[in-house]
Amino acid sequence: GAVVSQHPSRVICKSGTSVKIECRSLDFQATTMFWYRQFPKKSLMLMATSNEGSKATYEQGVEKDKFLINHASLTLSTLTVTSAHPEDSSFYICSARDSGGRTGELFFGEGSRLTVL
Amino acid sequence: GEDVEQSLFLSVREGDSSVINCTYTDSSSTYLYWYKQEPGAGLQLLTYIFSNMDMKQDQRLTVLLNKKDKHLSLRIADTQTGDSAIYFCAENQAGTALIFGKGTTLSVSS
């Protein structure tokens, strides 16, 4: 089946630094990718919709200058958490839609756990 | 806005059937999904159903959809300890982002 790969799976950083998380679709092209954030014991919250070659669409309450999203190719979207703070510690999950698929099924990455000290 | 609700916990004994329920509010939902998340891991798609279907069966999993009541359920037959995880119900329209419920923690005791 289709695979979405996220890297890194775990990252620990110091407060004030920036962290980049990559989301790759390995065997399909994805014009649209979604970034979710999951707080402990909570559901997944949609942060933004990443569109290849254009600006991301952010959900209400998500700071676009804090969470920079770049979708430069049909197989790669990146999320950069800028000037990270402890409250940004979370599990970030991306999903990608197979542009050539019939059903519009979304495939999810394994997630990236960010811990900000 | 759209909302998806699930009960938070379910505890069953090994070998029993588990039924996880979900309600949603968006009447224009096209697809309804069940995802499984094991501790520290990402999401695994278990199954999905089109909104024009009433039921879908896949090995031990049975999904029932009552579109009139906007109610979705997932039945796991012969539940095993390896089924212990968080199960998320989600819905979307074709090509749009999924809206998730808060997840049901399934605990299976031997």
How far from one another are the termini of chain A? 37 Å
| DSSP summary: helix tally of chain B | 0
Q: Major β-sheet of chain B, in short?
A: 6 strands, mixed
N-to-C SSE series of chain A?
A: EEEEEEEEEEE
What spatial form of chain B do the alpha-carbon principal axes imply?
Answer: globular
**What does the radius of gyration of chain B come to?**
13 Å
Structure commentary:
The complex is a heterodimer of chains A (117) and B (110). The radius of gyration of chain A is 13 Å and the shape is globular. Helix content of chain A is 0%, strand content 52%. Chain A has 117 residues and is mainly β. Chain B is mostly beta strands and 110 residues long. Chain B is 0% helix and 56% strand. Chain B is built from no helices and eleven strands. In chain B, the strands form two sheets. In chain B, strands 2, 4, 5, 9, 10 and 11 form a six-stranded mixed sheet that branches. Chain B is globular and about 40 Å long.
How would you sum up this structure in a few lines?
The complex is a heterodimer of chains A (117) and B (110). With 117 residues, chain A is mostly beta strands. Chain A has strands spanning 4-7, 10-13, 19-25, 32-38, 44-51, 57-58, 67-73, 76-81, 90-97, 106-108, 112-116.
Produce the secondary structure layout.
The complex is a heterodimer of chains A (117) and B (110).
Chain A: E1 4-7, E2 10-13, E3 19-25, E4 32-38, E5 44-51, E6 57-58, E7 67-73, E8 76-81, E9 90-97, E10 106-108, E11 112-116
Parallel strand pairs in A: 2-11
Antiparallel strand pairs in A: 1-3, 3-8, 4-5, 4-9, 5-6, 7-8, 9-10, 9-11
Chain B: E1 4-6, E2 9-13, E3 18-24, E4 31-37, E5 43-50, E6 55-58, E7 61-66, E8 71-76, E9 85-92, E10 99-100, E11 104-109
Parallel strand pairs in B: 2-11
Antiparallel strand pairs in B: 1-3, 3-8, 4-5, 4-9, 6-7, 7-8, 9-10, 9-11
